[in-house]
Amino acid sequence: MTKQKHTFLGLDIGGKRIGVAQADSEVRIAFPLCTVEVDGLEINRLRELVAEAQPSALVVGYPRNQQGEITAQTKEVERVAAELETLKVPIMFQDESLTSVLAEQYLKRHNKTYTKADIDAHAAAIILGDYLEVTYGH
Fold first, then answer.
1. Ordered alpha helix ranges (H), the chain
2. What total number of domains does the chain contain?
3. What is the span of the domain harbouring residue 93?
């Protein structure tokens, strides 16, 4: 019996942009896909991405402060996640501690010009990669 392949979209929700990454349960390598500007139309654009990818779940980065407590950004992520429920795709939360820092370090190591949007998309890939590791292991 073969296992069913699942596709996932990872989201790093911020105040200006939402980083988006994609992966599947077979290869288990998350890659940056794009960023979506937060401009009031972001749910529509995410709806288009969901229609294209047809993911089994959305993996949403869950921010907390260094003491593990919720923050204003945590509440904003929860608000956006509630809007995403209209897409009828299960939503999984994954800790996003330091993912933007790790994403920027990764981009710096490759000595290429990058933007804040690039950091957001790579942070989404790290969030999704962490979820895959926790869920499927190596």
1. 42-53, 72-84, 99-109, 116-136
2. 1
3. 7-136
| Interatomic CA distance for residues 2 and 101, integer angstroms | 38
Residue 97 backbone phi and psi in degrees, to 5: -55, 125
| Residue 29 belongs to a domain | yes
Q: CA 99 to CA 119: how far, in whole Å?
A: 9
Place of tokens 């995410």: 46
Report the largest interatomic distance among the alpha carbons of the chain, rounded to a whole angstrom: 46
User: What are φ and ψ of residue 9, in 5° steps?
Assistant: -115, 130
pLDDT string in tens for the chain (138-residue length):
557 889 999 999 999 999 999 999 888 899 999 999 999 999 999 999 999 999 999 999 999 888 888 888 999 999 999 999 999 999 999 999 889 989 999 999 988 899 999 999 999 999 999 999 998 875
> What's phi and psi for 110, nearest 5 deg?
-90, 5
Smallest CA-to-CA distance from 120 within 10, 38, 15, 19 is with 19
Amino acid symbol at 121 = A
Count of helix runs (H) and strand runs (E) in the chain: 4, 5
